Amino acid sequence: MFSDTIAALATPPGRSALAVVRLSGRDAFVVAARVIPTFTAVPPRTAHLAAFVGGDGTLIDRGLYTVFPGPNSYTGEDLVEFSCHGGLVVPIRLVSALLATGARAALPGEFTRRAVMHGRMDLLQAEAVGDLIDATAAAQARQALHQLDGGLSRRLADLRSALLDAEALLGYDIDFPGEDDGPVKPARIAARIQEIREQVARLLATAPAGERLRAGALVVLAGPPNVGKSSLFNALLGADRAIVTASPGTTRDAIEAHTTFLGWPIRLVDTAGLRESADEAEQLGVGFSRRYVEAAEVVVACEAEGGEAGKRGRESEFESLSGSVILVQTKADLSTSPRPRVPASLLRTSSLTGEGLDLLKEAVVRAAFGAHASMADLEPGLTRERHRISLTRARDALREAEAQLTDDREPVLAAHHLREAARALEELIGVVDVEEVLGRVFGSFCVGK
Ligand SMILES: Nc1nc2c(ncn2[C@@H]2O[C@H](COP(=O)(O)OP(=O)(O)OP(=O)(O)O)[C@@H](O)[C@H]2O)c(=O)[nH]1
Ligand SMILES: [Mg+2]
User: Fold this and answer.
1) How far is the centre of ligand 2, averaged over its atoms, from the C-alpha of 222 (Å)?
2) If you measure from the C-alpha of residue 227 to the centroid of ligand 2, how many angstroms do you get, rounded to a whole number?
3) Residues less than 5 Å from ion ligand 2, measured at CB
4) According to the CATH classification, is domain 6-117 in 3.40.47.10?
5) Which single residue of 31, 61, 69, 346 has CA 20 to 30 Å from 54?
6) Which residues of the chain does CATH 3.30.1360.120 include?
7) Could you give the CA distance from residue 212 to residue 56 in angstroms, rounded to a whole number?
8) For residue 162, what are the CA distances in angstroms to 157, 188, 237, 368?
9) Largest Cα–Cα separation, the chain
10) Nearest-CA neighbor of 24 among 107, 134, 85?
11) Which residues of the chain does CATH 3.40.50.300 include?
């Protein structure tokens, strides 16, 4: 199982106090010993202080190394982690020394790929490692940790296990047809499959929220020209990103920025004010705006204090959208009456004073991530298109299997569809082992009786 030896810098290159270099593979200890004259593999998982030297015997650095003998290492192989000084010179020299003495430069993700190859984690967990590293919002990190913890893997493994059981029962029905008094009636198997299908459907229902959490919710600021969309965009970001002027038609291009609201990932978009314009560039910008509004998960529909269109008018303007719409009255600081005549459901904001911005953020998070958007309630769910495609395949195959058992009574075809469903789950988790089904057939039945 052990593979060729790879090395790489595990921390970002550049000026830093420390850097970590990883070395993994069949000859990891041999290669390490060439760079560390005092190398010892015992005791394992203990930091040793040592001099790291280059091929000509020159000192590269004095640092710590830790030895993780396979298979109980991150990759499942013999692995050595070097902790050296950071910066532009030392880590590069250390990696070069390892490459010069028998290691190969690791490909992107290769350490984690080896972890999957050696059964240290499944594909879903490997994806979670990537998501955790890429997380820009607390909620994303939390979701990735759940997945790394095996939350999603366990749910899928349970489903797969239930499927293999059903397959085993069906196998018995095929091998001993016509035995009305067989251990399990087809109708019962069909009912069991239906149960599994419903569980698959429940998991599939988590896909939109999970994918949104990974990518960030698309939140679009829209409305007539000059209502203060760009000002609101800047205020929400806490940075001057978009140009603001007193004349209508300032924003032409849609501007997108990644940010977080209360720890949730948001793709915030400022758009050109919606109006008919003779100006070609502005009219093109309005076209962009409309497309963004249609794709948005949340539209923040802005209207300035004393704006012409009433609440009802604006609601109907955004009525046909699939995303949620939050109505906002901007420039609240310009309001003269202490109790403005606006419906209670209308959020009032001021980019000048900051009024209403926190409430708006809360409303956006609620609209984008659910009524009870709370990090503590984050359930393991699907987070990628790959997950959704595999589970859709499994659900459709289960539906077919059910039909074959209830209507046409073709257990052989039903078994074929069950296999298809199981394979879809196996691809998702990253285990493909047909032998397991056979084991179950003989394990749970006393066929020789
Ligand atoms: N008093 C006050 N003025 C604001 C506020 N928000 C925006 N303004 C002013 O309103 C004018 C237009 O603001 P923008 O943010 O450029 O408006 P916009 O909706 O992006 O306009 P377009 O890009 O042309 O569609 C500017 O003069 C801003 O200074 C606010 O909260 N209070
Ligand atoms: Mg603007």
Assistant:
1) 9
2) 8
3) 229-230, 250-251
4) no
5) 69
6) 6-117
7) 53
8) 9, 14, 48, 34
9) 90
10) 107
11) 213-377
Partners of 59 in the β-ladder: 53
The tokens describing 22, both together, are 């990883």
Closest CA to 314 of 247, 231, 227, 219: 227
3-class secondary-structure state, position 97: helix
CATH number attached to the domain at 213-377: 3.40.50.300
- Reading the chain (449 residues) residue by residue, the pLDDT tens digits are 458 999 999 999 999 999 999 999 999 999 999 999 999 999 999 999 999 999 889 999 999 999 999 999 999 999 999 999 999 999 999 999 999 999 999 988 889 888 888 889 888 898 888 889 889 999 999 989 988 988 899 999 999 999 999 888 887 767 766 555 556 677 888 899 999 999 999 999 988 888 889 889 999 999 999 999 999 999 999 999 999 999 998 999 899 999 999 999 999 999 999 888 888 888 888 888 999 999 999 999 999 866 554 555 555 677 778 889 999 999 999 876 665 565 666 899 999 999 999 999 999 999 998 755 666 666 778 988 889 999 999 999 999 999 988 866 788 888 999 999 999 999 888 875 544 544 444 343 333 22
Residue 401 neighbours by CB under 8 Å, 6+ apart = 193, 414, 415, 417, 418, 421
CA distance 289 to 282: 10
Cβ of 224 less than 6 Å from ligand 1: no
The ligand whose atoms approach the alpha carbon of 231 most closely is 1
46 to 25, 31, 40, 91: CA distances (angstroms):
19, 18, 11, 21
| Distance between Cα 305 and ligand 1 center (Å) | 11
Of the candidates 442, 433, 418, the residue with the CA atom closest to the CA atom of residue 163: 418
Judge whether 86 and 19 are in contact, CB under 8 Å.
yes
